[in-house]
Specification:
heteropentamer; A mainly alpha (376); B alpha/beta (257); C alpha/beta (247); D mainly alpha (296); E alpha/beta (375); D: 296 residues; mainly alpha; two-stranded antiparallel ribbon; two-stranded antiparallel sheet; 11 helices; E: 375 residues; alpha/beta; seven-stranded mixed beta sheet; six-stranded mixed beta sheet; binds adenosine-5'-triphosphate; binds magnesium ion
């Protein structure tokens, strides 16, 4: 063969898009309703005074818990959107943080500096983020594989530098830009209204999951899945790989920008943390932790990651850790140490991510059943 | 179905000599699929033993299990012995260093390396590489020694894959569809090469080209759906029309070419 | 229908494909043979646009397509299979074919439609699978297929696109003897009276002889001969350079 | 005039630092196909081990031979760390590129946090010979000796890696192994050993970079490795993955560009120029300056 | 339950006073955070006479790590407010302080910012106070090194970003406003090679060089300035960082004039003695006074205000107290904390350096201009 292997080195572990397969099995009937159940649980959560010691600091409906959950939900949605690129199309972007940051800073700047009300700032930020993704994608998609990853990283890095440079005092540099809440509806301001932010985040997550699900199960989604395996083949079938990749890239960018808007409201401002390549890397971690290319994996991964990221900080400073001998307590009081260790372990013990867990359990169950049948 | 179909172990005239390779109840599961379900056969210490069967019956899987290349998510059961040593417990590179040569189905030349580098890689410590042997068989490889293997034509890659194994002296060769994609002339040449090689080294061959099989094979093992369907004399298999038809699904006219 | 004029592809000084001119009439079946490394696959790559020719043109129905990217050529009705099977490994066999059908029928850029709901696509895909005899493998991941099965899937992908000109690169390589006749049947049915043309590289001479109307012989990148099977087989150069002595 | 000489020489010193960091990264990334985000950690381990040795190891110290011993200890520690990482974490994940990336990301988070837990977040003064703090006047420019030391070290490392790749079979084995590990095994080669070796060399180069970089900075801190890593990545990619020579060219380009733009342009422009250079190179030549396949 | 549940303040008089401390226990600023909390504990002990009680109400401290990340800090603050804390203190990083301040205002709780030096906290809103110094006070101290600035040439060398911007602006306002000719050399915070900047500075021949540089590259920066002869050719002023950083100045240390917020031995007040006795190790450092003052302010607020935040604010506004550094005054207009600042010099070598106070400037000498309260 004269065709040299395409340099696409970093295709994610294969998973058949569940949207494209009609799966048989006993769960068949129940399964479509499980997400609905989860949604209902999520909806009634703020009405519960249940206290889960160790899991959350306060009761489920306390502002602290709701705030934490809201952040988790946004990242669940963000990870699901990123998965559209990575898990479903096989594009390894290292610059996804940029579009998220565009949403956050866009909203913040439009409200705080330009004095626009939220209902104008939010759509503008989302459209802006989407256009940015489209433009950068149009350039970056001329490369593939690691080169693509690096070009996206480079663009994101420029974004990070611009934010840090704080041109015209627009971004607030490394100190960030607190949101001027006078442009925000009163219902989204103040601790007592945290629940509204929670609902906003939940709505965002639902929208993203729905969009990603719809798109993956659509004819376009089928092409994206094909792109992940063999781009050349797609071309020979008569489809322009570039166009499809650009669509996926832009769409994912738009979803990230929308997430940025929600995040900006939840956190009440923007800070340069979110422009860093580490954010993109953690998105990658979330997706892989959850299971790339699966419907719920990235969502769960995102939620879990963010939960750990926030909660480990308080575990680290808890009395239980302090009581341990020094050589244990010192590393354990470093949240990043625990987080890093957790996901090294996760990579080993949940290959295929959390979503892979279910099928592995099913496999186990099947083989057990098979074994017992053989015995009888 | 003819009575000789099942579990017949050894055939041929010189069955007195010990087999070089004994495969016993080999079973392979990959990702929950039971691909080989108790395959047993032996390879005679001289000549070519051919492994036949339709696409997907498990020929490649068998060879790969013998050299220890079953994928990570697979389980292997049964026993594979070369002389007295058990092969299944040893890592692939040890087996190969011990004289087990393997030519994979899809050639697997290193696309980024030049032809010469591909060959150099195959050199084994402690034995002199037989470049002249390889270049005599495939002068093309000598001529293209600085070309990247990835840009070779399909046939050239196949030559390289075979040449890579012949650089060393082996105790047993496992060759998976060596003539696939080769021009008729080269097929003849490769068949000749294998014939010559088989004079000194026993070969376990997977081959679809029945003309080649007819020319080379002494013993035959026919697989069907992960089980051995027949073992015996290759000549007999190819000459008895009923047998050929039932096991290989082709009339003997086609075998005659 | 398909024609090339002075098609040349050079790497450095070496001409891998050397001013090749072929004409493929509607409904014609042209076999391509030649020693390994003669440039057959390269020729296919030039025709389908995976490689850019250094010189020369490719025309389809009189239209110059030399400058078009692969996907545009495919849309004009040019389909091909690959010598090294190139299927979508992480999709199921059925999905593979559906993707090909869908690519052909258009409407791939529909983000909001349910793909699985398109019964026509599914039916066409199943028909293609049936024709190559892979129906029973429909749910397997294409990446886990045995070699011969992948070859058949390649052909199914081609069939699904209903191309007018088909380029087959060694479809029989690695296919078990038992299945060769079936596959020959499938390939034969590709042309029939439909007016489709086929360009097929194959080293199995019996297959070529059975199917081809004419045979083109390539050697060192150039077209050595292009004539009826009988004439070509009688050509002493072909005998010597390609066929060698009978096994 | 002397400004230009000064900028050129210090730019080369910076380039040497980038190259030292990038060489190991490039080797591991290009040959073993592992995008090693933990490289910064190896750097940190090398630096802290050297720092520790200079204060505690008998025979080692901040000056003369003692310093050489300390650096040797640091390099040994970095090598050992890299070998352990390869054996325990990377080896089980070969051919699962993404998971490898993640494990190295996890490792760098955890490892840097561990360094911080052990020695604190603050920068500590790094033991170093007195002459490294001085300057050498060259054509009227006061060139820091630390920079010259880096240039010498980088040249030696470049030579050593090239010799390794050219004169041993390992280069070949590793390049083949990246393409198809299984097939290398099937040729009778224990490919695992070769990969461990690559990691060991990468770790050693990183540790050396960490130690000499700390000499140059005058301090050692847990985050130091990470901040150099981004430029090292850029250098590796511009140079062409896996090409050590390419990395050397790229390092020089990046170092000089940064230095001159920072002097003549406005601040911060240097970084943006480097990123722009990366984007331009990748768009024009996605395989980098020296391309993916190179023997050296 | 209801979806809008927030714990009510707990009006009954014996209920503990809930105080939330959100600061960096991990991350890059962990060591600043550590000093802050040590100082806070000592201050609490000092201000309550060892009882940790205000009247009969215990002071209940909840500490939360923000790891320097504003998002985490905001979550933590909301959680604390939700659980009934009326007082939040901490903020090691400026970014955290700026984002927590509006949260405090939105929820009408008291916020006492900690070591965060950004000027923007001053006058941010009426709920926000500060227990540490601000950049402006640093710069005024720097100005005291050159006597009459009229006609003098001053160069600011600062890193890019808000920290550098703030310093440059302050120098322009304070020293430039007093008649000096101010120019700036800025460098990216990520720079590792400083020769170009050193050359630029040298060719500018300033009378005073003001350096605002934080982070791990500082030692390399100083070494380069030293090697290129900048330190010996002019007066170089910079802020004195925490003790652990002193050895990293190396030989350059003795050639620099330091302005200092605080170091051990800079003052000898009652509070300083008490703090010294109480903190682990017995050596005070840069941010101990901030924690100490925060505790004093918390106690004052609780004592005078009970659970009424408005009352707390009026109790603090204009309040003058004896802190570790000496007399501190909370300016009523914008909540700036007027406090003594120091000129210092550094001597020593290897790992042992000592700082000596050259001069102390009283709180009103370094007072920043009054800001209009923003919210
Ligand atoms: N990694 C794998 N995962 C799942 N199934 C596999 C895997 N490898 C092989 N199989 C299945 O095992 C069966 C046997 O495959 P094998 O490659 O051994 O067949 P073969 O006899 O060599 O066929 P061919 O003549 O086409 O090369 C096939 O059905 C194939 O789909
Ligand atoms: N990128 C390349 N660089 C150098 N030589 C190349 C390149 N691509 C192809 N070649 C050479 O061009 C020639 C033609 O290759 P091609 O694959 O077209 O042959 P083929 O006729 O298809 O052979 P086969 O029947 O073996 O498949 C071969 O000699 C090959 O080595
Ligand atoms: Mg096979
Ligand atoms: Mg070919």
């Amino acid at each position: 063969m004269t065709e040299v292997k395409s340099p696409e080195t970093a295709a994610p572990p294969a998973a058949v898009p569940s949207e494209l397969t009609e799966e048989p099995g006993r769960w068949h009937r129940v399964r479509p309703y499980l997400p609905l159940v989860a949604l209902v649980v999520a909806l009634i959560l703020p009405y519960s005074t249940l206290h889960l010691p160790g899991i959350f600091e306060g009761a489920l409906n306390s502002p602290g818990t709701l705030q934490l959950l809201a952040v988790c939900l946004v990242f669940g949605g963000l990870a699901a959107g990123y998965d559209l690129l990575f898990g479903r199309t096989g594009m390894l972007s290292f610059g996804h943080a940029l579009y998220f940051a565009a949403g956050v800073y866009g909203t913040d700047i439009l409200i705080t500096h330009a004095g626009l009300p939220l209902w104008q700032a939010a759509p503008l930020a989302i459209v802006g983020g989407t256009i940015l993704a489209g433009l950068i994608g149009a350039v970056a998609l001329r490369t593939v594989g690691i080169a693509f990853a690096m070009v996206t990283l480079a663009f994101a890095q420029v974004g990070a530098i611009l934010v840090a440079r704080d041109f015209g005092g627009l971004t607030g540099g490394e100190e960030g830009l607190p949101l001027d809440v006078s442009g925000v509806p009163a219902g989204l301001v103040g601790v007592a209204n945290t629940v509204n932010l929670y609902w906003l985040a939940l709505a965002y997550l639902v929208v993203v999951v729905f969009v990603v699900h719809r798109v993956s199960g659509s004819p376009t989604g089928r092409v994206l899945a094909g792109l992940r395996d063999d781009e050349r083949r797609i071309g020979v079938l008569g489809l322009d790989p570039y166009r499809f990749k650009l669509v996926a890239f832009t769409l994912a960018g738009g979803l990230a920008a929308a997430g940025g808007v929600v995040y900006c409201l939840i956190v009440g401002g923007a800070s340069p943390h979110i422009t860093s390549s580490e954010l993109t890397l953690s998105l990658l971690v979330m997706v892989v932790l959850g299971g790339p290319g699966t419907r719920w994996g990235p969502v769960l991964g995102g939620i879990l990651y963010m939960y750990l990221d926030h909660r480990l900080v308080s575990v680290g400073s808890s009395g239980a850790v302090d009581a341990l001998p020094g050589f244990l307590s010192r590393p354990l009081s470093q949240p990043l140490f625990v987080l890093g260790t957790v996901f090294i372990l996760a990579v080993y013990f949940f290959p295929g991510g959390l979503a892979g867990l279910a099928s592995r359990v099913a496999l186990l169950r099947d083989s057990l059943r098979l074994g017992s049948r053989r015995q009888s | 179905m003819p009575g000789s179909r099942t579990g017949q172990s050894q055939s041929g005239d010189d069955s007195a000599t010990e087999p070089i390779l004994t495969v016993e109840e080999l079973s392979v599961r990959i990702a929950g699929l039971h691909i080989l379900q108790g395959v047993s056969f032996t390879v005679a210490p001289t000549g070519v033993t051919v492994l036949l069967g339709r696409n997907g019956v498990g020929k490649t899987t068998t060879l790969r299990a013998v050299v220890g290349l079953t994928p990570r998510n697979g389980e292997v059961g049964g026993a594979v012995r070369m002389g007295a040593e058990d092969l299944l417990t040893r890592p692939t590179h040890r087996l190969v260093r011990g004289g087990l040569g393997y030519v994979p189905e899809d050639r697997c030349v290193f696309a980024g390396l030049t032809v010469a580098e591909n060959l150099r890689l195959a050199e084994r410590r402690g034995s002199t590489p037989a470049y002249d042997r390889v270049y005599a068989l495939f002068p093309e490889l000598d001529r293209r020694s600085r070309q990247r293997a990835g840009s070779l034509s399909g046939g050239q890659q196949q030559m390289l894959a075979i040449g890579r194994v012949l650089i060393n002296d082996n105790r047993l060769l496992l060759v998976d569809e060596p003539t696939k994609g080769l021009a008729p002339k080269v097929v003849t040449e490769v068949a000749e090469v294998l014939q010559r090689v088989a004079e000194s080294v026993p070969v376990l061959l997977v081959e679809q080209n029945l003309a080649v099989v007819r020319r080379l094979a002494r013993d035959a093992v026919v697989l069907d759906a992960g089980r051995v369907a027949w073992t015996g004399d290759a000549k007999r298999l190819l000459s008895e029309a009923a047998l050929t038809k039932s096991l290989l699904g082709v009339g003997s006219a086609e075998v005659q070419h | 229908m398909l024609a090339t004029r002075g098609l040349t592809w050079r790497i450095g000084e070496v001409a891998i494909v050397d001013s090749v001119a072929i004409d493929l009439a509607p409904g014609e079946f042209l076999g391509v043979i030649g020693p390994n490394g003669a440039g057959k696959t390269s020729l296919f790559n030039l025709i389908t646009g995976l490689r850019r020719a250094t010189e020369g043109q490719v025309t389809l129905d009189g239209q110059d397509i030399s400058a078009l990217p692969p996907y545009r050529r495919a849309r004009l009705g040019l389909g091909r299979t690959f010598q090294a099977s190139s299927v979508f490994g992480s999709l199921s066999v059925r999905e593979n074919v559906r993707l090909a059908v869908q690519a052909h029928r258009g409407g791939s850029m529909k983000l909001w439609r349910r793909a699985a709901a398109d019964r026509e696509v599914a039916a066409a895909a199943d028909a293609a699978l049936h024709r190559v005899g892979l129906t029973h493998r429909g749910t397997a991941l294409a990446g886990t297929l045995a070699h011969g099965e992948k070859r058949k899937l390649e052909i199914a992908l081609l069939l699904a696109g209903e191309p007018r000109v088909m380029l087959l690169d060694e479809p029989m390589a690695g296919v078990s003897a038992e299945d060769v006749p079936d596959l020959v049947q499938v390939i034969r049915s590709l042309t029939g009276d439909s007016g489709r043309s086929v360009l097929m590289v194959e080293h199995h001479m019996d297959v070529i002889l059975e199917l081809a109307d004419r045979i083109a012989v390539m050697h060192h990148g150039a077209l050595l001969a292009c004539d009826t099977p009988e004439t070509v087989m009688a050509n002493p150069t072909v005998q010597e350079a390609y066929l060698g002595e009978e096994l | 005039m002397d400004a230009i000489i000064l900028l050129t020489l210090t730019g080369l010193g910076l380039a040497a630092l980038y190259f030292l960091v990038a060489s190991g990264l490039s080797l591991v990334f290009g040959l073993a196909d592992v995008l090693n985000f933990a490289h910064g950690l190896f750097l940190g381990v090398g630096a802290y081990a050297t720092w520790w040795a200079a204060g505690n190891l008998p025979g080692a110290g901040p000056d003369g031979l003692g310093f050489v011993v300390a650096v040797a200890f640091g390099v040994a520690a970095g090598t050992l760390m890299a070998v352990l990482v390869e054996l325990v974490l990377i080896r089980p994940l070969y051919s699962r590129t993404i998971e490898q990336v993640l494990v190295t990301v996890g490792l760098s988070l955890a490892g840097v946090a561990l360094l911080q837990a052990t020695w604190g977040a603050d920068a500590r003064p790094f033991p170093r010979p007195e002459w490294t703090r001085q300057v050498t006047p060259i054509l009227g420019a006061q060139v820091p000796n630390g920079g010259l030391l880096l240039i010498v070290a980088a040249t030696l490392v470049l030579g050593a890696i090239l010799a390794f790749l050219r004169w041993t079979r390992y280069g070949l084995i590793i390049r083949a192994g990246v393409e198809n590990r299984e097939m290398v095994t099937a040729l009778g080669i224990d490919v695992r050993k070769a990969f461990t070796l690559v990691f060991a060399i990468g770790g050693a180069a990183a540790a050396l970079a960490g130690a000499l970089g700390s000499v140059y900075f005058g301090t050692v801190s847990p985050q130091q490795g990470g901040s150099l890593l981004i430029f090292a990545f850029i250098v590796v990619v511009i140079g062409g993955m896996g090409s050590v020579v390419g990395s050397a060219y790229a390092a020089v380009a990046v170092g000089l560009l940064q230095q001159f733009v920072n002097y003549y342009g406005t601040s911060g422009l240097g970084d943006i120029c480097v990123v722009a250079l990366l984007a331009v190179v990748l768009l024009l030549r996605p395989q980098g300056i020296a391309g993916k396949v190179a023997t050296a | 339950g209801s979806p809008q549940n927030t714990a009510s303040g707990g009006g009954d008089s014996a209920a503990p006073v809930k105080v939330g401390l959100v600061y960096s226990q991990s991350g890059a600023l962990a060591s600043y955070g550590k000093q802050y909390i040590e100082g806070f504990r000592a201050g609490l002990d000092f201000a309550t006479g060892g009882t940790n009680k205000v009247g009969d109400r215990a002071i209940e401290i909840t500490e939360v790590d923000d790891a320097g990340d504003p998002a985490k800090a905001v979550s933590a603050a909301k959680d604390l407010i939700g659980k009934g804390s009326k007082i939040i203190a901490g903020s090691t990083a400026s970014g955290v302080a700026l984002q927590v301040a509006p949260i405090a205002a939105q929820n009408q709780v008291l916020f006492i910012s900690g070591p965060a030096a950004t000027d923007a906290v001053t006058g941010a809103n009426k709920y926000t106070f500060r227990s540490g110094r601000q950049s402006y006070q640093d710069v005024v101290t720097a100005k005291s090194f050159i006597g009459d600035p009229t006609g003098k040439k001053v160069v600011v060398f600062a890193q890019d970003g808000a920290f550098g911007d703030a310093n440059e602006a302050a120098v322009r306002a304070v020293i430039g406003g007093a008649g000096a000719n101010v120019s700036a050399v800025r460098a990216p915070a990520s720079a590792t090679e400083f020769t170009p900047f050193a050359s630029q500075i040298k060719s500018a021949k300033p009378d005073l060089l003001f350096v605002a540089w934080a982070g791990t590259t500082a030692p390399a920066m100083w070494q380069t300035l030293d090697q290129q002869g900048v330190l010996t050719s002019t007066t170089v002023v910079t802020g004195l960082d925490i003790r652990a950083s002193w050895p990293t100045f190396g030989a350059a240390g003795s050639k620099i004039s330091f302005l200092s917020h605080y170091f051990d031995g800079a003052s000898d007040t009652e509070a300083a003695k008490a703090a010294k006795a109480k903190i682990p190790g017995g050596t005070l450092d840069l941010f101990h006074p901030d924690g100490f003052a925060a505790a004093q302010m918390v106690v004052r607020a609780a004592q005078e205000g009970g659970d009424d935040v408005e009352k707390m604010i009026s109790a603090l506004e204009g309040w003058s107290f004896e802190g570790v550094k000496g007399t501190m005054t909370i300016r009523a207009e914008d909540h700036a904390l007027l406090q003594p600042m120091y000129q210092a010099s550094l001597t020593g070598s290897g790992d042992t350096f000592t700082a000596t106070a050259q001069k102390a400037l009283a709180g009103d000498e370094t007072a920043p201009p009054v800001q209009a309260m923003k919210g």
